[in-house]
Prior knowledge:
The chain is α/β, with parallel strands linked by helices.
Amino acid sequence: MSGSRLSRALESGAPILPAEGRILLSGPSPADDLAGLPRDRCHLVQTLRPEHDALAAAGWQVGLAPEGIYAAALVFLPRARAAARARIAAAAACLSDGGVLAVDGPRTLGIDALLREVRARVPVDEPVARAHGKLFWCRPPAGAFADWAETPRRLPGGFVTLPGMFSADGPDPGSVLLAAALPERLPPRLADLGAGWGWLAAAALARTGVEEVHLVEADARALDCARAAIADPRARFHWADARSFRPDRPLDAVLMNPPFHDGRAADPGIGAAMIRAAAGMLAPNGVLWLVANRHLPYEAALAECFREVAPLESAGGYKLVRAARPAAAARPLPAGRRGPRGRR
Ligand SMILES: C[S@@+](CC[C@H](N)C(=O)[O-])C[C@H]1O[C@@H](n2cnc3c(N)ncnc32)[C@H](O)[C@@H]1O
């Protein structure tokens, strides 16, 4: 819990909250206790749609990237080390002279190793260690972390990724398995839920019969990478939570390699929620193609939401499933009609 570390640091007079000036909070989640921070001076950067919206709904000013100069910055550790370094570099680059850079994170995300790396470059005060994590701070001179800045990675096929994105080094073997199993001719209207940097959606666009592919992705950075790679006018890009996304008309097919993290936390429940959402987006004869790590428990959600569920393949630690005919309770009703319990 960063909140307890943050409040402990603030109580102990740590210089992480300057008397005036804007404060950047990079990557906070709605679960972080931000009490004690002056709302009117804080600018939060959060590119994940569900977390972005929850923070905005709680009254914080939230954007997709740092803007201008800040008197202090508090970086919340993401899961990937390269992404953490990039976040630190971006925060340090927009600090005013002598501005404080603070970094907070749990041990499970590698705060100790990161503290060692930062200490090798700049002096760091005694950290606050609490709740299985640490909060440390420093005053980085200009350029101290410039070499940690995020560099896009260019992949064959015109794809581009950024550090910390899912399968940033190349297509995920699970997605490759799913793409290989798709029929040569696909139905016209599809979605890729959790589309990442676009590899699977691009594979669908390469099949015949496709008129539109909706790329639904929660992370604005990944969606920007997909946009940069896919110039096809049949691609529609949606920065959205797939669990609540609703297409304008029912879809013929959904492709999915579902995430198993909700923000920073591991949560296989998000995949099950996306299966339910997919069923709700499909036409009566619609089809879901899903690939997932073999151990992830999606069978109950599939059986609950689809009348036909056929395991297609199991290879390399992945399972591939084709599910068809969404159960009536899961399907969207035609426009204007209400369900038995007021369902729309
Ligand atoms: C396992 S990756 C699959 C990416 C891509 N389809 C591929 O095959 O390479 C899952 C993706 O889902 C995204 N994601 C996580 N939660 C999401 C949500 N609630 N709504 C939409 N996308 C989400 C992640 O950012 C990630 O890009």
